[in-house]
UniProtKB/TrEMBL annotation:
This is cysteine synthase. Keywords: Pyridoxal phosphate. Residues 7-314 form the Tryptophan synthase beta chain-like PALP domain. It comes from the Bacteria.
Amino acid sequence: MTIHNAITELVGNTPLLRLNRFGQQFQLNVDLLAKLEYFNPNHSIKDRIALSMIEAAERSGQLKPGVTLVDTTSGNTGIGLAAIAAAKGYKFRVYLHDKLSAERFAILSAFGAEIIPFSQVPGFDKILEDSDGDFVAAAKWLAENVILKEPNVFFTYQLENPANPQAHYHSTGPEIWQQTAGQVDIVIASVGTGGTLSGTGKYLKQLKPDIKLIAVEPGIHSIPDRENPDAKEITGVHAFSTVLPERVPLTLDRELFDEVVSVESWQAVQAAREVATTDGILIGESSGAVLYAAREIARRPENRGKRIVTILADSGLTYLSTGLYDPQLSIEQIKVQALLKSRAAEFVETPF
């Protein structure tokens, strides 16, 4: 018999799937593989770091009965933390962006999490505005001015917690190596905190130094800022190559990456919709961005015949209310809306 005693035993060991029909549709002369992270118990790769951060805190004595776990997150890390906290008997509080999908709020609530939208934190909107949307600076302000002033809390702080990339060094990287028998040429993943590609890439490059690591970040029209605050973001994906060093999470090791590919939100949506119809997998926005980047990388003549592993971070089920798979909302409409917002911000008249 194989009977597990807790969801913590179900984290990791996700399957690697060859995307045959997607590759055929676009005439890709590569071996395109997808690491399906939605096979984790809470349907995203963030289960790995949630478990890693919680167990590291338990070993260090920072987390024990009576202590409340706290983090600020775009959603998936919060869901993983909420589920594992529930399974271990801890309370969990999460600070969330108000614009996240309804599904994420509902799931967190189901796990018993205390949910605090950013709009309910006094002064936080101004911090976001003053920092031009810098999520690293905003998280630090929230920690220093709100979270760490309370007793009996442990702030997991995924942006700086070394247990974040270590989770991928000890699990995701070894799994990819074992599943491919070391026959892998390129690995592509999106960057949020950077822990996925940093930890996975560090492990793989130690075994195969010439492996190529491709990091995916949002294109210029998919990055909200002071001039274009309503830009359509790719949930959980953040720019890092064009920002100041202090705006880059400490969990991101930029020295490991061989290339950075920018993907716009409508391109991510397009790829997610395409692979749903070609290979029957339902993926989230960030995974769509990774798949779009993989398609472009695969088309290069120098990559003919190579094996490309894409890390697809989560399920599309938590995006159904966002229009990601809405047949009434065409890719062209999404693109036009994004560009119109961008251009409207660009050509605002300045009074003399």
